Q: What sequence folds into this?
């Protein structure tokens, strides 16, 4: 169990860590029932240790109806029975720690499941009752209260469905996501106390950090006014009241040397940086880099902007190419539009997987050479592409709430291939996985890639092993032709990425440390290839 520590015992491991994201349901199935579980993760800890990661970030593993992939939590102090038990989670945290791997858990403070005891009690209570004060219950507008209390938009891009649901007693309740995810009222002191207790509960069990879902959405304007685009302050995004919440959380985390990483989607760099002040969150995800197209000038601008917005508060940047919500890197980089935008997702978008994979390999070396922490979503180290899910097997509410126009996020959540010759590519043993694995999935199996020195897995292992060569020094850009990114970190260590149309000369160097693909016959760096050099 974790114990509070004093400031002088803290380390800054999180400032430059490689953190591996585990979506438990799709990682490994230990009991063969078709759903990934903690037993599967525990069995693969040696694989993760060999990969070289510093920490594991687990998406929600709690009791949940799984209406939104576990981001509809019914009980934070218990593990979903399909995944295991609290005792197993404690063993996993301990076993990972023995291998030098820390654990980060996910919390979803904006909302809970409609099966959470608080919400079931609120439904059973009459309008105006204290139980309903924990949420946002309001009478409707219109002559008979038949209209929603306001016109706020859904946080599922493309959804035209209202964010209010009416009950038989006439009250409406707010849910920025699905009706099964009622928003909590963060102006109520019981909400704040409960979440601080949840943080302590998991820090006591040895977790090293907490990732905060939808971190900028918790606070709402108490008047719940209609939404007006561009109005400042926004009635439900990035409100000033949030910072007092996170300062209180930070005091809890500091008792355990705990770390926070926030999911903060904000276009304003200055307001983004406020969440990273020394008494608030330690880090926040960098979505600018994740969504940036494969273009040298735009990537450089994203990198410069990210580093500049973190510098005033002394926080490390974070770099991520993909996660459980986003199109797989190998697919995205093989499309005509290589950026990512939720609003632009459609069925049937063609992709050149050979091209996308080549670029994904180069992007891996780029991200792992940048100063700060790097997040690797499970399966990226295998080069997995986005999978097409049959319509009758789609589970993601994004698909249903868009009226079937948005393909949803299931394509990046397909169960991993571990063993090429085993049933279901080694994900499990008896039952078909909860999401179908596409034809050809076995070609990406980890056991095949372990035997191939040119595989994506071999590249990730080598890059993570060599990454400390870049040290803690800041990034310095080097002169380079158009379409080429070149920078140094530690004196004498260089990263070069060629996004141009022609092979590029490498800077003067004494040693070629690693490349994402072979050099050409003249020793030049081909298009869509990266190299790490020692000067």
A:
């Amino acid at each position: 169990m974790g114990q509070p520590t004093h400031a002088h015992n803290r380390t800054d491991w999180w400032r430059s860590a490689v953190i591996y994201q585990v979506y438990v349901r799709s990682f490994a199935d230990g009991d063969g029932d078709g759903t990934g579980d903690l037993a599967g993760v525990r069995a693969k800890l040696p694989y993760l240790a060999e990969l070289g990661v510093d920490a594991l970030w687990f998406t929600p593993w709690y009791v949940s109806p799984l209406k939104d992939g576990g981001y509809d939590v019914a009980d934070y102090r218990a593990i979903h029975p399909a995944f295991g038990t609290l005792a197993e989670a404690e063993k996993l945290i301990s076993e990972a720690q023995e291998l030098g791997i820390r654990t980060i858990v996910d919390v979803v403070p904006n909302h809970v499941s409609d099966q959470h005891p608080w919400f079931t009690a609120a439904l059973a209570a009459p309008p105006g009752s204290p139980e309903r004060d924990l949420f946002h219950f309001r009478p409707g507008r219109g002559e008979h209260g038949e209209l929603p209390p306001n016109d706020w938009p859904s946080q599922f891009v493309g959804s035209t469905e209202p964010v209010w649901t009416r009950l038989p007693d006439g009250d409406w309740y707010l849910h920025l996501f699905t009706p099964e995810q009622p928003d909590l009222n963060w102006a109520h002191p019981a909400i704040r106390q409960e979440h601080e207790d949840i943080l302590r509960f998991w820090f006591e069990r040895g977790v090293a950090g907490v990732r905060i879902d939808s971190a900028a959405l918790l606070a709402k304007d108490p008047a719940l006014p209609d939404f007006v685009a561009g109005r400042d302050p926004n009635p439900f995004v990035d409100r000033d009241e949030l910072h007092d919440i996170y300062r209180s959380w930070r005091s809890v985390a500091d008792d355990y040397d705990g770390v926070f990483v926030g999911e903060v989607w904000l276009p304003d760099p200055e307001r983004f940086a406020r969440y990273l002040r020394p008494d608030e969150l330690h880090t926040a995800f960098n979505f600018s880099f994740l969504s940036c197209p494969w273009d040298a000038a735009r990537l450089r601008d994203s990198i410069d902007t990210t580093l500049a917005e973190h510098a005033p508060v002394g926080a490390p940047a974070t770099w991520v190419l993909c996660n459980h919500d986003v199109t797989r890197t190998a697919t995205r980089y093989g499309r005509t539009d290589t950026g990512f935008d939720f609003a632009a997702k459609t069925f049937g978008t063609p992709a050149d997987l050979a091209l996308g994979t080549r670029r994904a390999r180069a992007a891996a070396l780029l991200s792992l050479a940048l100063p700060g922490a790097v997040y690797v979503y499970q399966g990226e180290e295998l080069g997995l592409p986005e999978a097409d899910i049959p319509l009758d097997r789609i589970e993601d509410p994004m698909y249903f709430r868009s009226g079937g126009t948005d393909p949803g996020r299931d394509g990046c959540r397909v169960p991993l291939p571990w063993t090429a010759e085993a049933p279901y590519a080694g994900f499990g043993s008896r039952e078909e996985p909860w999401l179908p694995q596409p034809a050809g999935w076995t070609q990406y199996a980890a056991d095949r890639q372990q035997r191939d020195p040119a595989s994506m897995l071999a590249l990730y292992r080598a890059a993570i092993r060599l990454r400390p060569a870049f040290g803690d020094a800041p990034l310095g850009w080097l002169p380079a032709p158009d379409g080429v990114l070149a920078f140094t970190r530690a004196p004498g260590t260089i990263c070069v990425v060629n996004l141009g149309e022609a092979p590029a000369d490498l800077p003067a160097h004494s040693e070629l440390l690693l490349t994402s693909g072979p050099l050409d016959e003249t020793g030049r760096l081909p298009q869509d290839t990266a190299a790490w050099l020692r000067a």
Observations:
- Residues 1-10 have pLDDT under 50 and may be disordered.
- The two ends are 46 Å apart (CA to CA).
- Residues 382 and 456 are 6 Å apart (CA to CA).
